[in-house]
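Before drawing any conclusions, I looked closely at one protein, both as residues and as discrete backbone shape codes, quoted below without any editing:
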Amino acid sequence: MSVRLKLTLSYVGFLMVAGVLLLAVVWVFLLRYVPESVTISIDRPGPGQFVPNRSDLERAFVPRATWALAALLVFGLVGGWLLAGRMLAPLDRITAATRVAATGSLSHRIDLPGNQDEFRELADAFDGMLARLEAHVAEQQRFAANASHELRTPLATTQALLDVARDDPDRDTGELLERLTAVNARAIDLTEALLLLSRADRRSFARERVDLSLLAEQASETLLPLAERRGTTLEAVGDVTPVVGSEPLLQQLTTNLVHNAIVHNLPAGGTVRVTTTTRPGWAVLTVENTGEALAPDLVPTLTEPFRRGTGRVRTPLAGDHAGIGLGLAIVDSITRAHDGVLDLAPRPGGGLRVTVRLPAAPHPAPPPP
């Protein structure tokens, strides 16, 4: 049975039960006071002396009560059917929108009018889900297109170098091998970054207690030679900030942030400051760097794959340390996989402030006595 029919039968059932109860009340509190038989003493016979007893009232009441119940049944069926149809009308719009979305059209919205009732909340939640799905699909399509372009570039470069070597046998093979090695290393780095991004999105990792301050120190020590070569001052300070998560992924998150802060900085004399702090319920990692001024509307797009502050990433030449364009995208994915919050804000004097908030690890239980 359809929901409309079930609701109609439910309405009729309640209506019939109410009618029967009403008749039962009449029977119990009215007819019970009428005697079964009546004896009348009459001095003189004459018309108008008839007094009904209980049997007479039953013969007169029961047929009319039966007809009343039958009419109530018909009224309940018709009225319940119409009322159920009116109540379930919003579901028809939701069903139609679901079928449209099933065909691949995620831009359709229900936009259900009326008061904020349960159906309106369901329709609004469905519209919100469609909006998120549409944005996610668009993001995945852009990511697939960009990833294909980035993977095609080193392959095309490799093919071009091989063609040059084939057409010019006297060319220096050492230089050719060096450039092939650089291009191949970039392709490997890009593939590993894509795999890391997919792993973080799936949340397929083991969780353990990790101290963000130690990860920040390790990332700073590892990237200190790069900072010194670029004339950038690197500083890491902070408190112990324990969290629960994947140490390799959180190490990658910290390393990416520090690396981006060093690379996207002033040509000389820049600074990078890495701090870890604790707030109620949160462990906070902040990475600040100097650099060029960034437009506020550009900053939120930096977490998109293959994006930089100056626009879409290009494939760098050998020896360029600009990265592969997935640094902040990986940071954003790892943060969301750990139920954290990533915030990017431009600094007033130029540069960027990146704040990662992760749920703080609970205090360890005391050892048993």
Remarks:
- Residues 310-322 have pLDDT under 50 and may be disordered.
- The chain has seven helices and nine strands.
